[in-house]
């Protein structure tokens, strides 16, 4: 695996594959079969332009992210304390990965940092509005993140200037939504609709209401304060809204690593307000976090899942025909290392038709076996899962009748739970046997990885 790929998350390959196909085929598709809008548009525009001029792969994305992170730091680091807070985060591998991951995080960070900078100026103009709109197209959740800031900023402007700011903010958002509607027939990204499909219970919403009420009261109290204090309070409210939305609608206390840049930006704003004693404690915590983070990343078992998925993609490339169709869940790394069509079965970068007609109706088994009919399924699963379920019913589809073509056993330690050593197997399964001795996954499930515990 290339050293650059150590920083990529699986979803980054979704962007890279769609951007490459958009440049070559002129279609927004991950697998070459289904049209999708499961992405944030501005970052897709960036990557598609890179692909058009021949800058493909993770290198171009990560170099662009490095530059965008520097642009955001230049806009926001108004003092040594703010710059120090950012550098403290970047000192750890996982802090660095918040910005360097192949996703839209660095672009959103740079735009929002400039929006905050302009909000502190004496008279925010149409440029402030335009950057606000672009920030929303860089990541759709920024509409909630920046709404309080926009509200409290408009309060300081003459009413005649509101139309200018709002029109400038609306223009890129309307263009992105219009393009999505024209190309896919839907405004909302299919990935967002799937991720927010299971809201939490009433207690969570009550807790969020209390948190947002207290944070909103804090922001309102600062509404007439100097610009820096007002921006800090309103941005804190925006961060609270996004975190509560993740908690309430996605049941996530800590969201994906590439979505944590607003918290880093808020930390930078808070750095100038912390007493010296708190800064000392923060420096110690940052040092401990950095040491732990790099220890985890340098452990070979921290990347085995990605390496195994890469080899599954390379196996498909070397052992199958160019017209082969494969399928799986979380297939970014697999698809990124083969030119074969790989259909994403969790739907995040699939079509709206797939969501409405397959996922919403619970028809994944029928779709996989009777409609899509891929020649291969590529997927990693916990070994314990194979042992306990003879039907190998994985996320709504039985894998038991499929034939084992490739199996790679490995141990994996995820960053979210490094104390747990997961025993997994990366499988490439075929619909039909390739020889008389081929056996189904159901027949082989108890023997796979038996020699590795």
List the helices and strands and how they pair.
Blueprint (H helix, E strand, L loop, with lengths): L9 H16 L15 H12 L5 H19 L3 H11 L2 H5 L7 H15 L6 H13 L3 H13 L4 H26 L5 H6 L6 H20 L5 H24 L10 H11 L4 H23 L5 H16 L5 E4 L3 H4 L5 E4 L7 H8 L4 H9 L3 E7 H6 L4 E2 L2 E2 L4 E10 L9 E9 L10 H4 L9
Parallel strand pairs: 1-2, 1-3
Antiparallel strand pairs: 3-7, 4-5, 6-7
Helix pairs in contact: 1-2, 3-6, 4-13, 6-7, 6-8, 7-8, 7-9, 8-12, 11-12, 12-13
Q: Can you characterise this structure?
A:
The chain is of the alpha/beta class. The protein has two domains: 3-298, no CATH class; 301-452, no CATH class. It is built from 20 helices and seven strands. It has a five-stranded mixed beta sheet. It has a two-stranded antiparallel ribbon with strand order 4-5. Helix 11 packs antiparallel against helix 12 (227-250). The longest helix is centred in the middle third of the chain and has 26 residues, at 159-184.
Write a concise keyword list for the protein shown above.
2 domains, 453 residues, single chain, 7 strands, 20 helices, alpha/beta, two-stranded antiparallel ribbon, globular, five-stranded mixed beta sheet
Brief account:
The protein is an alpha/beta fold. It is built from 20 helices and seven strands. The chain is 58% helix and 8% strand.
Helix and strand composition category: alpha/beta
Main sheet: which strands, in order across? 2-1-3-7-6
Helix content: 55-70%
Mean pLDDT: 92
Q: What sort of overall outline do the alpha carbons produce when their principal axes are compared?
A: globular
The figure for the number of domains is 2
What is the count of helical runs? 20
Largest sheet: 5 strands, mixed
| Distance between the first and last residues' Cα | 26 Å
Write the H/E string, N to C: HHHHHHHHHHHHHHHEHEHHEHEEEEH
What proportion of the residues form beta strands (DSSP E)? Answer: 5-15%
